[in-house]
Amino acid sequence: MTVCGHNIPAGSNVQMSHYIMARMEQFFKNPLTFDPERFLRDEDKPLYAYFPFSLGTRSCIGQQFALIEARVILAKLYQNYDFKLDPTQSFEILDQLTLKPKGQCMNYIYSRQ
Ligand code: HEM
User: Fold this and answer.
1) Cα–Cα 20 to 30 A to 71, which of 23, 40, 63, 81?
2) pLDDT value of position 82
């Protein structure tokens, strides 16, 4: 099989990298800019370049549940607490299959009550 001019022999193990695809200008405008609004429901998203829950027949059956759960948890947290990032922390990435901040995500948390 040939994909974009590359020959893929039968039996090859093919993986897709979110990390690389999310940084490609052809899929995301200004890919290195922190812009959560690009993921708003009505924004145009490249269909096959954004697949956190995978795509196709074996994609995540918990996707809708996970998205609702995340909204509820975030809403509850922001209703009850104010968050302030510790300004001294670095923004280096720790790459361990999934990506996370190297120095964790240190916050000051203030109760709103
Ligand atoms: C942010 C949360 C979640 C993410 C990012 C996520 C992501 C994924 C991905 C990428 C797959 C495909 C794995 C593959 O290709 O082999 C998958 C499959 C699956 N997920 Fe999730 N998932 C999440 C939450 C959930 C929840 C909450 C449930 C259940 C309540 C769930 C149940 C499943 C199941 C059963 C499969 C296997 C589907 C199949 O093979 O037909 N997931 N998930």
Assistant:
1) 23
2) 97
* Structure confidence at residue 72 (pLDDT): 98
Q: Say which residues have a Cβ less than 8 Å from residue 7's Cβ, sequence separation at least 6.
A: 1
* Minimal-distance CA residue to ligand 1 atom 20: 60
ipTM of predicted assembly, 2 dp: 0.97
Ligand 1 binding residues, C-beta < 6 A:
52-54, 58-62, 65-66
- DSSP 3-state of 6: strand
> Distance (Å, rounded) from C-alpha 30 to C-alpha 25?
6
Task: Quote the pLDDT of residue 42.
Answer: 86
Ligand 1 atom nearest residue 51's Cα: 10
* 105 has binding-site annotation: no
* pTM confidence score: 0.82
Q: Could you tell me the distance, in angstroms and rounded to a whole number, from the CA of residue 23 to the centre of ligand 1?
A: 24
* Integer angstrom CA distances of residue 13 from 28, 31, 98: 26, 27, 20
pLDDT of 16 higher than 90: no
CA distance 34 to 20: 16
